[in-house]
Amino acid sequence: HLYTFMIQPKVKYTLPVWYTPIKKGNFHNKGSVSHARNIEKVHRSACKPITGAIKCTGTDIIEY
Predict the structure, then answer these.
(1) CA 46, CA 34: separation in Å to the nearest integer?
(2) Whole-prediction pTM value?
(3) Percent of the chain predicted with pLDDT > 70
C-alpha cells in the first residue's frame, strides 16, 4: 500500500509534464523510452519486497 499511496500518485501527477508517448520507429523507439524504463525499475523495486519475491522472479509474476 505504501507504493500505491506514496510513489504512484507522484509519478502520475508529474507524468503529463515530461512524458511523451512511445512510438515505434524503423530502428529505434521514439518518445520517453528511458523514462518508461526508469518508472518500470521503481515499480519493480517496490513490488519485490511487498510480495517477498526473489531477485530472479519475473515482473509479470510479481504483478499478478
Answers:
(1) 18
(2) 0.59
(3) 92
